[in-house]
């Protein structure tokens, strides 16, 4: 059976990374919408086994909160459709699933997510002997081939302009420079940066490292280059944070007018909004997001001839094909070609 589609977290939303630290120190986990958190009428009417299968599928099998919310919405929406056409769980057929998907006015990727949710849900129903066969197993999704990611690209020149535009006369400027420096020089996801605690920035005796709690429960250590180390040290020194509790957040919110730090951790959303303000101040496109730095860093390293495997390891991708989606070198070649058209 295919693996659940993970819902990526980018930009201004929470990321849904696995919680490896106490919830109180990070952004709150996603909760299901009211319509999706309620047990669907068809499931309730299906008896104890169907009800058990629903709770097992939503709350037992899916650990990522974003995936859980997306799958619960997809399945609940489909079951409401089935109820409207007087279908019960055992009578749902592949035709019902296929016709439903054909009627969805969604992008192919979203339809693929809905189909994945239905396949996993019906598989659970089969396991719990609610239905005999998986009605979604044989349904084909729309052909979707992604050769390049949709994350907007930030050029190296734009990244440099952004960094030099930050006023570091205040603790807030030093904090923001350190956060953006980590985005650039580690290719870490903004959700992982938001989870950093004081203990996650440490000296190994040879160099400083950052330990990130990444998606899928992965823990990764990335060396800190010298200029980034200076950014972080300047921020910690100005904020008098060096001697604080190891479990306290590394990056904290600030009271805007006084520019004094609080004891509260910045969330991924806080960092995203901070970046939008910094982009506006630097005169850079607002469509750029924290995830744009991953595109910049990955493309830059590949352009220098760094092996794909090494870049993949830095980005924390399980599959090199994911890393290639961030590579925008081919776009530059295409521009060169079209510029040569002599019509």
UniProtKB/TrEMBL annotation:
Sorted UniProt keywords: DNA integration, DNA recombination, DNA-binding
Gene3D superfamilies registered for this protein in UniProt: 1.10.150.130, Intergrase catalytic core
One GO process term, biological-process aspect: DNA integration
InterPro entries membership: CB (IPR044068), DNA_brk_join_enz (IPR011010), Integrase-like_cat_sf (IPR013762), Integrase_catalytic (IPR002104), Integrase_recombinase_N (IPR010998), Integrase_SAM-like_N (IPR004107), Tyrosine_recombinase_XerCD (IPR050090)
Pfam families assigned: Phage_int_SAM_4 (PF13495), Phage_integrase (PF00589)
Keyword Cytoplasm assigned: no
Coiled coil stretches, renumbered: none
Core-binding (CB) domain residues: 48-126
Molecular functions (GO terms): DNA binding
Keyword presence, DNA-binding: yes
Protein name according to UniProt: Tyrosine recombinase XerC
Gene label: xerC_1
């Amino acid at each position: 059976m295919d693996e659940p589609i993970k819902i990526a977290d980018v930009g201004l939303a929470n990321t849904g990374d696995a919680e490896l630290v106490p919830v109180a120190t990070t952004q709150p986990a996603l909760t299901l919408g009211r319509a999706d958190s309620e047990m669907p009428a068809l499931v309730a009417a299906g008896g104890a086994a169907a009800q058990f299968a629903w709770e097992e599928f939503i709350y037992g099998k899916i650990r990522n909160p974003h995936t859980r919310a997306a799958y619960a919405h997809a399945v609940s929406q489909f079951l409401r459709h089935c109820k409207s056409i007087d279908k019960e769980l055992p009578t749902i057929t592949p035709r019902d699933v296929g016709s439903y998907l054909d009627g969805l006015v969604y992008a192919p990727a979203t339809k693929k997510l809905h189909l994945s949710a239905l396949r996993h849900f019906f598989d659970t129903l089969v396991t719990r002997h609610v239905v005999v066969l998986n009605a979604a197993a044989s349904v084909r999704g729309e052909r979707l081939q992604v050769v390049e990611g949709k994350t907007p690209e930030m050029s190296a020149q734009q990244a440099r302009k952004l960094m030099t535009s930050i006023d570091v006369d205040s603790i807030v400027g030093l904090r923001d420079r350190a956060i953006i420096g980590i985005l650039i020089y580690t290719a870490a996801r903004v959700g992982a940066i938001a989870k950093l605690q004081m203990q996650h920035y440490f000296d190994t005796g040879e160099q400083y490292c950052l330990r990130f709690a990444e998606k899928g429960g992965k823990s990764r250590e990335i060396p800190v280059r010298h200029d980034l180390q200076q950014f972080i040290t300047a921020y910690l020194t100005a904020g008098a944070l060096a001697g604080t509790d190891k479990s306290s957040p590394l990056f904290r919110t600030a009271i805007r007018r006084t520019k004094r730090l609080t004891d509260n951790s910045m969330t991924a959303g806080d960092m995203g909004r901070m970046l939008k303000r910094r982009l506006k101040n630097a005169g850079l496109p607002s469509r750029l997001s924290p995830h744009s730095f991953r595109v910049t860093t990955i493309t830059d390293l590949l352009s220098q001839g760094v092996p794909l495997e090494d870049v993949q390891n830095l980005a924390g991708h399980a599959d090199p094909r994911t890393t290639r989606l961030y590579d925008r070198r081919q776009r530059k070649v295409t521009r060169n070609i079209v510029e040569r058209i002599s019509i």
